[in-house]
Fold each of these.
Amino acid sequence: MSAASNCAPVAPKSKEQLLADLNSCQWRALIIGIMAGIICIVDAFFSPVQFFRSYLFALVFWISFPLGGMAIVMMNHLTGGLWGLPIRRTLEAASRTLPLMLILFVPIFFGMRILYKWAQPAAVRADHVLQYQHIYLNDWFFVVRTIVYFAIWIFWAWLLNRWSAEQDRTGDRRIATRLESFSGPGLVVYGLLITFGSVDWVMSLEPHWYSTIYGLLFMVVQGLAALSFGVYVARRLSDYEPIASYVNPQRFNDLGNLLLTFVILWAYLAFSQFLIIWSGNTKMEIGWYMIRAHGGWAGLALFLILFHFFAPFVILLWRNVKRRMNTIAGVAVGLMFVSLVDVYWLVAPAFQPDQPKLHLLDFAAPTAIGGIWIAVFCRELKRRPLLPVHDPDFAEAFAHGD
């Protein structure tokens, strides 16, 4: 079951070489992250307001990978299917970085009064809407809710990873049933918490506006970003044993179909939100789109329409594209970048309603958080087997030569 000849090296690299390359990636990412972090800290003294704005945007983007990864792992446990086998250990490793994301969230607690109008006493006194919202949107309750979200997510990820490790160690087939039973409620809990989290962290930046689809959009953005990351890592790992002996073009074709599903779902939800708000044409709701549909933000919106939907939709319709590992990995990288732009389009107009004004921190903050996150991810990836060889689907698939 070797990887496609047009994508993989003639001779797959050894496990020892994989470990060495992961160590190298870990240290390079950590160094880059620290250097970018130093830039952020220095710049924060001169532009504290911009620091918190850029930091929030970067954090919201990078948290997509552990949360979206955990959700996709649970989806695979619940539905079954061979498509999840090449990426499951990758996404499990991503989910184990959630404690890091909680630590990285702490600066937001110190910047609440800079970021959020509802955290500014003068703004609350002058706005009757904020006064009504104050029972929910206030400093201490925001902190408590965020800690609760992360506590539940971390606990859920810990259980999933613990049982997965136990399955690797014992080969007990009953664990697969346990994981399946646990994943259904887990997806419900994830959906509820990320809905509240997206409202707290992003939608409340513009407290006069609301959307009931907002949480669903964030679920899809996180799922798409995490799945794209899993596809890219699976392609990189397919150069090494043991992945090279088990991954084949059909698995990447399945993952490409799932990417296409997420792309379509994002377009459906984004258009549904737009259509409902635009047809309602109420002053409180339509202002959110008026900002994002004019000036420089309109160009960014057009970019998202073209490259978050139309381009990947057309590309992923082609079976040959999805079966070529290098090509589908390139599409995955593009979708991760577009997801970054999408998060920026959701967050930044709350602070810059006229037009985008890119700042050094808009590049440094994502690089700093991303470098640190990738370093921790590489550390976690090295700690577990790269394939769930004791999963019943795995044994069945490769016993029949699939």
Amino acid sequence: MELHTTRFGTIPIDEEDIITFPDGLVGLSHLKRFVLIRHGDDSPFRWLQSVDEPSFAMLMIDPWFFRPDYEVVLSDIDVERLQLSDETIRWVYVTVSIPPGKPHAMTANLLAPIVINGNARRGRQVILDDERYSTRHPILQEMWRSVQTQEAAG
């Protein structure tokens, strides 16, 4: 099938690539169906493109790319809603914000990760209660801290 988008133009997608978010996203409960689009072949970024709203796409990143110690503790309700088991393929992404003209100041929302059941193609944005994280976590500073920690460890 073809998906018409504002950002990417018309792109081919397979029906089985559609990820359903039964509860929508935080503040966007009306948007339920999405596809993941790679930002580039070697890029850690992905776009979460709405199937239902051509103009809506969110930039995301795998949080472990810049924060290796990141932890996502899911509630029993989250596990149930996502239909997760020990064997389930899981993907976790966090949304990225880039201030206009300041890519070096990009931040990630580590308090509201998007968790996807890769087998059932079912997603949910979960809210964490963890004071180590913020909604505007500096990505490049975290990457720099991680490199320094690795170098110090030898």
Amino acid sequence: MEHYLDNSATTAVSKAAADKAYAVMTRLYGNPSSLHSKGIEAENELKNARKSVALRLRVSDEEITFTSGGTEANNLALFGAAYARLRERKKIIISAVEHSSVTEAAKRLEAEGFQVERIAPRKDGFIHPEDVAAAADKNTSLVSVMLVNNETGAIMPVSEIFAAVKAKDEKILCHTDAVQAFGKLEIKAKALGADLISVSGHKVHAPKGVGALYIKKGVRLVSRQYGGEQEKRIRPGTENLPAIAAFGVACDMFDIENNYKTVSALNNYAKKKLLQIEGVTLNSPEAALPYVLNISAGRVRSETMLHFLEEREVFVSSGSACAKGKPSHVLSAMGLSREKADSALRISFCKHNTLEDIDALCEGVAIGLKVLAHR
């Protein structure tokens, strides 16, 4: 029996979302830009999906731009904001624990002459508002701090961070990568104080290949692509309507409060059982999002344990899926020892997980520590 506990990497597509994608591909296949009835039919699907995503961020429909996923949304936010203010401001501030789609974009901007300042978390695993505000100045164009860390589940105090930054200079744009938070926490753009918010479909039971960027009305970005009139020319090109429509359906199915309770119970059960295993320690902060649990498993390297668990049909991750097994910059920035970072596993839940999944995980880790430690 399969025990899938890698939902921060991707989720199974829901039947309702898959059915919608299939219907759009086979029946509602018109181009949303076409003026005939098939095009209008498709355009209505696009409008409905945009409304569904906007509703979950408490923003207007016109403030949502569809992308190919969270990576493109993050890239569009960073490059778009940086280039739009190139002549007046050339400093970007990010946290040191961002997703690679932010850290690599920042690295590229740095190579182009922008100043990039990286704010490390304190020992508690969180980015503190005063640390970000201290780095902000009149040359700062953009601040980017993720809402939920994809490796540890740490919920960053984004609203406090952005308030502190805006108090110092209200012209600084504030972006948050909310990919791991979307569908799991109630998100209100205005309450966060965010000018830009990135979200993704395949983390919330929609297909891969679709995401969105919230762009607050009045914020100007320089497009990364050129072509047609789609998405207000910010992201031109024929829309991936099957995936977008499925994303909209997935958003309509959010049950944040009940799912949070379910996953919190699973997380607590997992922590209790895992900590009974000699050699296991927790890396996630106590107040982390319950959907993500990061542990270190003795002296056994992450990849070795991961494949041992896979043989038992238990699927977890050694960190961010986008890192493809490279050492975690997140755990390093948190000050974890190399030994702990090298044995780290990320367990990530969804509403479909069960106590049996966790029992299988704990049994596998316990046996693995006994068997693998002696190889």
